Amino acid sequence: MPPPPPLVLLAKPLFPNFAAALEGRYRLVLAGDADAATAAEARVLLVPGLVAVTAELVDRLPALELVAATSVGLDHVDLRACRRRGLAVTNAGAAFSVDSADYAVGLVVAVLRRVAAAEAHLRRGGWATDGEYPLTTKVSGKRVGIVGLGSIGSLVARRLAAMGCRVAYHSRAPKPSCSCPYAFFPTARALALASDVLVLSCALTEETRRVVGREVLEALGQGGVLVNVGRGGLVDEPELVRCLREGVIGGAGLDVFEDEPDVPAELLAMDNVVLSPHRAVLTPESMRGLLDVVAGNLDAFFAGRPLLSPVSL
């Protein structure tokens, strides 16, 4: 008789297509439904979406060895608790990078060219009654600063450089000059001073929380544009709203917010802001790529092979 499939504990229910793909290979049990014996046996915790993985949850699983997240950012996972326990942690790797980079570029274009506002002008009959929509500014030639030149940020840089933008970046340390043709700035404020557009694509950590506040926004200036496809917590959101209202910066493209799904009401009325409900990474193609990464990490773990997307703790 063949052995039972390996147990994988779920922090919350899986996406239906993920469950269908994994159920034959693994015994999937919701953490909330697991009895004491099952919790004591679990070596893997699979974390769909952004459900919180707390120290208390980790400590309730004495046999736990791997926390497998389906996101790139891990601000919802208590990494200190994982480090203390000596756990391995994996994330989505590069599964979302291309789609997130494409979306960031789309937001840059949409804000600079006022695509959403021009469409609203047309839909309400303004073209016929009020005439032409005002001129907007070109994308090519803009100075673009990228905060976080990782797998997403580097793809944003390549795309915007190909469109004729001048790209620079800020990260924890400069990239090797042989592999990175872009100028490095030691702080987000210094980068903002030298940029027309500031794109946030870094992870949310204790060091990067609210990395963009009023000082950085003032450095970006009246014609400047902020684009965020990282995490809402990278930005001091109340200050961003004030700076947009006061004309401190020229516009923003936001896919993420500090207290999702709540979005500041004032942003909804601003025609120099493009908003979306945290969708940058999500396409059918990226979800198939994510399933490959998740399944690959589980297969590798139970076979004793190197993990596909380990996170350094």
From TrEMBL:
Residues 36-311 form the D-isomer specific 2-hydroxyacid dehydrogenase catalytic domain. Belongs to the D-isomer specific 2-hydroxyacid dehydrogenase family. GO terms for molecular function: glyoxylate reductase (NADPH) activity; hydroxypyruvate reductase [NAD(P)H] activity; NAD binding. Keywords: NAD, NADP, Oxidoreductase, Pyruvate. One of its GO terms (cellular component) is cytosol. The gene is LOC100191765. InterPro entries: D-isomer_2-hydroxyacid_DH, D-isomer_2_OHA_DH_cat_dom, D-isomer_DH_NAD-bd, NAD(P)-bd_dom_sf. Pfam families: 2-Hacid_dh, 2-Hacid_dh_C. GO terms for biological process: photorespiration. Coiled coil: none annotated. Residues 105-280 form the D-isomer specific 2-hydroxyacid dehydrogenase NAD-binding domain. It comes from Zea mays. This is Glyoxylate reductase. PANTHER family: 2-HYDROXYACID DEHYDROGENASE-RELATED, GLYOXYLATE_HYDROXYPYRUVATE REDUCTASE HPR3.
